Amino acid sequence: MLKQLFAVALGLAAVFSPLGHKAHAQGDLTVYCSVQEEWCRPMMAAFEKATGIKVAMTRKSSGETMTQIRAEAANPRGDIWWGGTGDPHVQAAQEGLTVEYKSPMLAQLHPWAVRQAEQTGFRTVGIYSGALGYVFNTTEINRRKLAAPKCWADLVKPEFKGEVQVADPNTSGTAYTMLATIVQLMGEDAAFTWLKGLHRNVNQYTRSGAAPARAVATGETMIGIVFLHDGVTQKVTSAPIDLVAPCEGTGYEIGSMSIIKGARNLENAKKFFDWALSAEAQAVGAEAKAYQLPSNRNAAVPPQAPRFENIKLIDYDFAKWGNAEERNRLLAKWDKEVRAGAR
What does the angle CA 42 – CA 43 – CA 46 come to, to the nearest 5 degrees? Predict the structure, then answer.
């Protein structure tokens, strides 16, 4: 009896000790998710159902997630970073915050997704893509008898003063893509002249890149600069909005996924990585009313998704504008010359 009691005591000590907790944690996974909450939640639920692995998920914008991963580098709390624009994922790879992983699923991906992996030494990979643009509230445009905007140049017109909403490029990958797009499209000097003009028309810099689309849908603002698929998410609910792929041309994102260096549940992170690249997993996006172009060639493209062949795209240089030094320089210049300026 004493021996049995001693054995039970040892078992309980193992369960409640730090070592016992760590062993239990090997069946778990911590995911930092940088798409909209409405897509994060069903994605994690589908993975749990497919694998039995319990997921703890935190949702933040890509810029905020990058800041968190950098701050936690000495003691990582997350295992995998799923979603959000590729530029901060590329920067994380350059800073050694993520690890190399060559998934067996790479053979099923579109070339643009594989190229994202190759350019970073396989420290990140493309999981979806989407074009940048803006949306406007048709009810408000018609009520005020304004001409519908069609180009980037239209957004700095005086009739739109206080009527434009866009995210802060320090926290939002969407807004950083806009910043890098305008620089590539116009040249840096002309781009910053345009950005200062836009600043005078901005009513709010949001933290999340998708937030301006929701604000346009509810009539809170007339125009929102967003990825076009975020506009589709609102339009399919019968919101009075139209989508604009700017006439001058526009950039696009490659939404990405990375395994965090020092992940406590590395094997489970690899399982999620492989699963998230499957056609089955990427179908969750359309079910969650996320209308990006999936990276798996076998995944069905949502019929509502904005197609690249219908949009004038620039040759977006992901390697240059995802570079940590260049990204930090551009953000610092925007903070000093645009955000700090008078409206």
Answer: 80
The mean pLDDT value for 178-206 works out to 98
CATH number at residue 34: 3.40.190.10
Spatial separation of the C-alpha atoms in residues 119 and 193, rounded to whole Å: 32
* CA-wise closest residue to 200 among 142, 237, 159, 172: 159
What pLDDT score does 8 carry?
38
User: What is the per-residue pLDDT for 113?
Assistant: 96
Which is it for the CA torsion 227, 230, 232, 238, positive or negative? Answer: negative
pLDDT exceeding 90 applies to what percent of the chain? 88
Domain match, 144 and 20 both: no
Co-location of 197 and 241 in the same domain: yes
Residue-level pLDDT at 319: 86
Place of tokens 């062949």: 309
Give the DSSP letter of residue 336. I
291: three-class secondary structure by DSSP:
coil
Quote the pLDDT of residue 97: 98
Half-sphere CA count of 255, side-chain side, radius 13 A: 31
Average confidence (pLDDT) over 208-236: 96
Q: How remote is the C-alpha of 227 from its chain's centroid?
A: 10
CB 117 within 8 A of CB 126: yes
Please tell me the distance from the alpha carbon of residue 278 to that of residue 276, in angstroms, as a whole number.
Answer: 6
3-state secondary structure of 262: coil
Question: Domain range spanning residue 89?
Answer: 2-129+253-306
What sign results for the dihedral spanned by CA atoms 121, 127, 128, 134? negative
What's the CA gap between 276 and 283, in Å, rounded? Answer: 10
Whether 294 shows a pLDDT value over 60: the answer reads yes
Long-range contacts of 321-327 (CB under 8 A, 24+ apart): 321/87, 321/180, 321/184, 322/86, 322/87, 322/88, 322/89, 322/90, 322/91, 322/94, 323/90, 323/91, 323/94, 324/91, 324/94, 324/95, 327/87, 327/88, 327/91, 327/176
